[in-house]
Amino acid sequence: MSNIAIKELSKTYNSKSPVTALTDINLSVATGEFVALLGPSGCGKSTLLNLIAGFEFPSSGSLLINDETIKAPGPDRGVVFQEAALFPWLSVWDNVIFGPKVNNIPRHEYEHRANQMLRMVGLEDFRDHLPVQLSGGMRQRVGIARILTLGSNILLMDEPFGALDAQTRLSMQELLLSVWQKLKPTIIFVTHDIDEALFLADSIYVMSARPGKIDRKISVPLDRPRKLEDTSSKIFRSLRLEILHMIRSTHG
Amino acid sequence: MINPQFKKILLGLTLPILICIVWQYLGELPQFAGILPTPFKVLQGWGDWIFAKPGMGLNPYLGTWTANVSYSGSRVIQGFLLACFIGIPMGLMIGWSRLASSIVDPLIQGLRPIPITAWLPFSIAIFGIKDFGSIFLIFLGGLYPIVVNTTQGARDIEKNFVRAALMMGASPYQLLLRVVLPASTPSIFTGLRIGLGIAWTAVIVSEMVAVKSGLGYVLWDAYYVGRMDIVLADMVSIGVMGFISDQIIVLVQNKFLSWRILQSH
Description:
Number of helices of chain B: 11
Number of domains of chain B: 1
Distance between the termini of chain B: 30 Å
CATH superfamily of the domain at 1-71 and 155-161 and 191-252 in chain A: P-loop containing nucleotide triphosphate hydrolases
Largest interface: A-B, 26 and 23 residues
CATH topology of chain B: MetI-like fold
CATH architecture of the domain at 1-71 and 155-161 and 191-252 in chain A: 3-Layer(aba) Sandwich
Strand order of the largest sheet of chain A: 6-7-8-3-9-10
CATH class of chain B: Mainly Alpha
Oligomer: heterodimer
Distance between the termini of chain A: 41 Å
CATH topology of the domain at 1-71 and 155-161 and 191-252 in chain A: Rossmann fold
Number of helices of chain A: 8
């Protein structure tokens, strides 16, 4: 339903000294696939996500979703931002229904779904709270519920759990996996955390910086549904080591 | 035990009361006689200005306080509301659209350095010695801070708020109304409070010259006929009105910005 095809894409910022953020990116994501973009800061992984979101546009190459070029941001590609980017003047509920509301969808059509999604992320009792009254993890859950209510087929997640403490991050990862298991959206997940990428993704694209490019694709052979115990399995550990070596060698 | 709130009020009143006592004492000394009316005289004059029956004796101010306060007040309200209705949308457009900014901002920035007092002759020439001569000045005085602060608020909006709204399918109009406007409200209210302060300055100045009623008119008129008790009572009245109107804005602001208040705690 929603596959993403990126061919020979590059992105250069024209300034006094032009900066090449991305070069020669080739990437194809199948419908329902969980993909992680893994790399150090400055490798252009967030830029790549912004291009898919339609916030920015490639300098050359092609970026197609269902064989169509991306022209603007849209509800088919829901973005979860690093700092949640909830509207602080709206309650949790009003944040979650912002999408259907601006798309003029009648209330009876979205109300049930919005409630369902709030329940799925465990925030049904916090509908009337303001974002400022929530913890960082809860805010990210609202951010997820908001794009699930929107009905996006593609979820673009920009280090969404990067600012959370270790415990919260783990439970958010489990939550995301259970949501993905239920709804099977296509997910592109940006992270610099190797464990996170291994635990969540079907395929990991390891990127390196200056200029930002994809070094390698790694398929994660762990079974679904994944459990916490998988993170201490032998195959998990050896993959982690392999990726670590890979990142070190390109960092010289 | 005295409760802390009450104690704070008492402490705050100490200095004003002390000044009044010294002033009263000095004012009654023969060598200072006739320079300034004593606080007691001011209160007496003020009382007559408010409560006495009009037309009694030779005092032209008897019982006219309420009328003059409402003249000035209604001019401020009209001029200030006009400034809001034009200033807020204008500021949002300048802050949000590069095109609007290129077209409108130079004019605003070009006119802004001209003090509103310099507009007095212009205003009288165009609108005459009528209400609108005064209202125009109040409008102009309130307009600049409202436009400038609203512009700032719209410009400083967090990039990811805009991106989030676009991602969810908001149209440019929805983006402006549902995201840019609420995100700008803190700076808009800053502009409103500054604008209202200037509006009170403008009403007094304009009433001294451009109309024949209101607190500003009485202030100048009383000075000419040597009624310094009325001058002082008038000054305090202006201060009280300014304070009350500012508190009203603060009240509205707290209602609109509860999310913001929670944020800063």
